[in-house]
RNA sequence: GCGCCAAUAGCUCAGCUGGAUAGAGCAACGGCCUUCUAAGCCGUAGGUCGCAGGUUCGAAUCCUGCUUGGCGCACCA
């Protein structure tokens, strides 16, 4: 906001320097404007002089003194006295900008006008992005790992919406195949078991109690009428329906709504699978060996070729995966984002190779891989195993710590990092718990407004507030932080990194708590100052609310 | 054996395209409530950024090798 104004000014001065023959345009767009870490280094700092010196040296072979370049640059930069109070040269040639204190309040007007869209960009014209996530096959309730993925995917989708994309959320699943047959057999075994009949539980069957519940529901509905059914498919169907209902309930509870559920089956029914194979065959990228069909992935930088159709005639997971992504392309998305768990990494190169082979631009697909989650209870890791069904479901997790904590905690780490979820901390009602800290911040601001009414110090019209009264470093810092929000959202969206929103919110809430403790917003003896501060607080609360919205966490009015 | 990810304070982690003396939060220690929620704030202490080289004005960040942990490496998904 303020920064982009400065950015423009710096660029125009850079161009002036080029026009005056002070330096060439070689360094254009390669220098950066950043926020220095230390006090005394200004509000922003620019490394242009060093970059220019470097480029000039490369071009001419002559040594160029960065500080000298900085001096020339600063001569030009100084002229904007509306924006800048002071420009200094420091260190090896950094240019430090000290903004005119009055500039910061500009952002408040923007927040006031844009309100619940502050920080978000206008719709991009026709830019469609598809975010695929969760995509769990209906073999059991959503577990912790799916939870991280669900929250990550949904928040990424929210971020992309915030920067103007038309976003669609998609869930891809497969209700055929071996896993599902095992599910059917497991259900059947439990059914017979509950009826007191002899049964053989599959060796690799699903041992979770939910299978027993499903079996019981079959008994409730149809009694023992299915005893002689030999087709596990019937059991599979019932189990699948029940489990999907459960998954759907969990997702709804998490505030996540998918636009599409894409069933792998479609790919077979519509003949896309055969189509892809024949296209690849025509291109000479497919061959037969040992009764199986192989895809020449080695031609796309991989170690070896991979089987796409088993000798049994059944495709391996790669083929439908490639095919599915081809369908995404055909549906015309500008960008496709896949959220996968780290265990699915092996499919990524295969899909990319497949798409490239089919003539699509694979760079339009971005895969976000997230590492696993470890649950910690009393400082010890909670051991989980899917097969033994000792896993913790998302529903159980939400029951224990609440949805807001679940969402917030899953976003506290970047996707690349393993995530340690501390159940004790998540339940804490105090500043040790980051969700609580941020939400309490929001609630605390809001209560000032109700108090304001009681004390007869109301904010009045925004246009009548005198923000020149806000001169405290803390006040300016809050305005600066508010002003940085839109760029933060842009960056977090571009890098698919919702955890940055979390860090920002913790920081902003921290600034608020500090201010709240140090100064009083409401002072009947200083009405004008109180009004300005009230408006500052109103804007702050809106940014907290908008930020929490991006990660799907509620912003309570009181706690 | 090969590939991907990670390695930063006692613990959990930030650090965006390399930037100036390394950042939070917890935990530890010491303070702050007659005033808008102390569900909070302030202060102190804490670091060879896994190890070794290299690239350059400048490296936690980029390159190479190594060590440790996680996940993969199927005619499972």
Briefly characterize the structure.
This protein is of the alpha/beta class.
Keyphrases for this structure?
single chain; 559 residues; Gyrase A, domain 2; Isoleucyl-tRNA Synthetase, Domain 1; 19 helices; RNA-binding
Describe this protein's structure:
By secondary structure, the protein is α/β, with parallel strands linked by helices. Among the domains are: 2-103, Arginyl tRNA synthetase N-terminal domain (Gyrase A, domain 2), CATH 3.30.1360; 177-250, no CATH class; 430-550, Isoleucyl-tRNA Synthetase, Domain 1 (Orthogonal Bundle), CATH 1.10.730. Helices cover 49% and strands 13% of the residues. It is built from 19 helices and 15 strands. The protein has helices spanning 2-19, 48-60, 66-77, 106-114, 144-162, 177-194, 209-222, 232-253, 265-269, 272-282, 318-330, 347-357, 394-401, 403-410, 423-427, 434-455, 473-494, 499-518, 527-550, and strands spanning 33-34, 44-46, 84-90, 94-99, 128-132, 166-173, 260-263, 286-289, 292-295, 306-309, 335-341, 365-370, 373-377, 380-381, 419-422. It has a five-stranded parallel β-sheet. A hairpin with a 2-residue loop joins β8 and β9. α6 packs across α8 and α16 runs antiparallel to α19 (527-550). It is flat. The mean pLDDT is 92.
């Amino acid at each position: 906001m303020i920064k982009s104004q400065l950015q423009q000014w710096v660029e125009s001065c850079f161009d002036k320097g080029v026009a005056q023959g002070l330096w060439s345009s070689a360094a254009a767009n390669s220098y950066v404007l950043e926020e220095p870490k230390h006090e005394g280094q200004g509000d922003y700092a620019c490394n242009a002089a060093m970059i220019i010196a470097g480029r000039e040296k490369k071009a001419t072979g002559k040594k160029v003194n960065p500080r000298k370049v900085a001096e020339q640059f600063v001569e030009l930069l100084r002229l904007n006295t509306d924006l800048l109070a002071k420009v200094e040269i420091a260190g090896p040639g950094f240019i430090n900008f000290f903004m005119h204190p009055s500039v910061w309040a500009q952002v408040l007007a923007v927040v006031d006008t844009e309100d619940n869209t502050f920080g978000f960009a206008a719709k991009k014209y026709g830019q469609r992005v598809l975010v695929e996530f969760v995509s769990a096959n209906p073999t059991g309730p959503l577990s912790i790992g799916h939870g991280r993925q669900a929250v990550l995917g949904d928040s990424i989708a929210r971020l992309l919406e915030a920067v103007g994309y038309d976003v669609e959320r998609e869930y891809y699943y497969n209700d055929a195949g071996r896993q599902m047959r095992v599910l059917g057999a497991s259900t059947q075994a439990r059914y017979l078991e509950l009826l007191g009949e002899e049964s053989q539980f599959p060796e690799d069957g699903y041992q979770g109690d939910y299978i027993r519940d499903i079996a019981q529901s079959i008994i409730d509905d149809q009694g023992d009428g299915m005893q002689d059914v030999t087709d596990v498919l019937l059991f599979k169907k019932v189990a699948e329906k029940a489990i999907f209902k459960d998954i759907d309930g969990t997702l709804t509870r998490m505030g996540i709504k998918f636009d599409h559920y894409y069933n792998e089956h479609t790919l077979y029914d519509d003949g896309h699978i055969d189509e892809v194979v024949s296209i690849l065959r025509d291109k000479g990228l497919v061959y037969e060996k040992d009764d199986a069909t192989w895809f020449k992935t080695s031609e796309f930088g991989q170690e070896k070729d991979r089987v796409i159709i088993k000798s049994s005639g059944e495709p391996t997971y790669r083929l439908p995966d490639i095919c599915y992504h081809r369908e995404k392309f055909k549906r015309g998305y500008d960008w496709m984002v896949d959220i996968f768990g780290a265990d699915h990494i092996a499919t990524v190169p295969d899909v990319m190779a497949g798409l490239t082979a089919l003539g699509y631009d694979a760079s339009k697909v971005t895969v976000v891989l997230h590492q696993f989650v470890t649950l910690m209870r009393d400082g010890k890791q909670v051991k989980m195993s899917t097969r033994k069904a000792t896993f913790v479901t998302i529903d159980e997790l939400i029951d224990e710590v609440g949805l807001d904590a679940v969402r917030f905690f899953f976003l506290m780490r970047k996707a690349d990092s393993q995530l340690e979820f501390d159940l004790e901390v998540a339940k804490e009602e105090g500043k040790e718990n980051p969700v609580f800290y941020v939400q309490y911040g929001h609630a605390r601001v809001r209560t000032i407004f109700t108090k304001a009414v009681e004390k007869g110090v109301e904010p009045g019209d925004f246009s009548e507030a005198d923000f020149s009264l806000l001169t405290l470093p803390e006040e300016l810092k809050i305005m600066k932080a508010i002003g940085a929000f839109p760029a933060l959202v842009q960056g977090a969206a571009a890098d698919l990194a919702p955890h940055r929103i979390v860090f920002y919110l913790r920081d902003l809430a921290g600034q608020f708590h500090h201010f709240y403790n140090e100064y009083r917003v409401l002072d009947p003896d200083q009405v004008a100052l109180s009004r300005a501060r009230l408006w500052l607080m109103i804007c702050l609360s809106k940014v907290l609310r908008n930020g929490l919205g991006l990660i799907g966490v509620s912003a309570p009015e009181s706690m």
